[in-house]
Model the fold of this input.
Amino acid sequence: MKTIAFFLSLVFWISTAHSEEPQFYRQLPPLSEMNKITADKFRDADAVIILKETAYGERTRTFSAWASLITGEWIATTEILIAKVLNDHAVSHFGSFEYEFADHTELYKALKVKAEFVFRARVMKPDSTVLILPDTSISTIDAVTASDDTPFLKKVIFKIPDVAPGDVVQIEQTHMQPFSDYVRRIFFYHDRYPILYSNLTIYVPSQDKFDFLSFPPEVVGKPTLVEDKNGWMYSWGVRNLRAIPVEAFAKPFGEVSYLTAMVKKLHKDGSDGWKPLVKEYLKSFADKRSVNKSFVEEIGLKEEDGKATWDEVEEIYTALRKNIRLFSVNSIYSGSDLRSVLDKRAGDATALANIMLEVLGRREVSATPLLIRDRRKGAYERSVSTLGWFDRMAVLVSLDGGEKVYDFDRSIPSHYEHPWYLHRTTVMALYDTGVSHLYVELPLQLEKLVSHEKHRVDLKRSSATDSVTFTFTAAHAQRMRTQLYPLSGNRLSDRLRNILEQFALSSAETTSVNDFRDERELRITGTGEAQASVSSIDSFIVFRPKNHLVHDLRSRFTQGVRHSDICFDEPFCYAMEWRVNIPAGFTPMHIAEQTTLGMDQGITSSIRYKTHENTFEILADLIVNTEIVQASKYQDLLNFLDKSIATIERDITFVRKH
Done:
């Protein structure tokens, strides 16, 4: 991103631009300055964010409920975004808006409070016309519900019509929530687009004691501080931030962006801040324990005496996964007690982890709660003691001198396997005496990282039918399982058909999938007309195979320019096979020798051919024996994949026998 030297006049606007219109906090920037932001000056950007601003405030309130007084924080967060739209890609992004938040309806009703959400938007056209979107354009739906239709997650949806390249869009949203336990106090400065000004303001009551940690400290700097009679206002500002675009296999946004985090001040006992947080957190689960003999039997287990074995630990995990449906979203604060989870046969990862802890306790097995922030979100910073880092609870089992982490994520089958995203990551173990930061390194076996694609082709003079099987393993299976987990019936069939018809079949007549929620491999099969090209001229039939796995990998790299290194989940291999029934009276001609292609870092592909009496075999492999490909090698990788596809899909000619 270029440094925008000619926006000096915006500095004054940013610091003084409080809107005169009561419904907006900020004025729109001067049109003359906005006209200087063009696609020519920002060639790699779809949009430029003029201002990204977050204002966070909290105050303590005491509520009366259940004949008790409950004290908690009332949180208000306002986010302001003003952006210049440069092309149609940005139009699709800024033209629609979605915001999800946890819904604690039963709790709010009991306390006679409710969360409030306010949304405002307007668009300034190049001719200075300003269109203000009415409040009636916003809608709120239940995004996730429990089995009894109790809302668990709500989604706000807002459409901004008629946005076009050249427009300036202003979006302001304010969310007011009771109870700060459910609010993450980590604030990020970057965005998916370049930013001219990124501001953060935090207001806290004078009696609250917080520290503020920013990363990198030498860039974000120290806040300015303003005091009033009720509290303190801290403000930060960062300028000219590069974009962190959405790219396939990129580092998580939270690991790359600058940030500021709120943490409670260190305690007099010298603890680092984690100990009091964890003590309070563990206490929140103490009153929800309800595992007894009948509970154990209801999830399909027998109540046994004595210490459990590793096999029995696996059975406990499998029984929980088979009997309880996982929600799509997680929180370290489970919204249901254990009895409620079993009655509804649904819960989040934290609820199931808590149940497993209780069941293992009854079986005399040492089990420790873990808090998880995995590689999909990025590492947490140990010096920033806030539970806002973490997404869910998991379980660390210690038995017979060994240890194993059990995570309850939709990507993992009920017959447990180590998830790729916990490999080489740090998790936080919770004890009554404090915490321990544990580094997890899982064994990787290359033979278990192989995904297969098999075709059984019945070749005719001008067409071919195909029976195809995709077998996904390890990270590939786990990512696919996450997509398919909530689907059933026609929705699942339609999704399978879409996968098969992406690169393998022209039309899928049949589709099926194995018990992917339970099995470690995820296997999709289908039959129908092949996408492979077939043509015949005189005494010749020309067959050109079509592969799915390499095409699918290549299709993920859509940008011409790569901004970050490519970080694959893990090393992997594709093994592809076509068995083609040779038409009666024909034979293959000019069979090519084995072809091998390669690039740096152990990335190779090969193709070879075999002929049997009535069958012609095409065998291809692609091996990626690395996790990191530098951004400077991006074009080399694209060229390698394109050449591999062309080699795998070259023509095979069959000639009539004389």
Notes: The CA atoms of residues 588 and 654 lie 4 Å apart. Residues 1-15 have pLDDT under 50 and may be disordered.
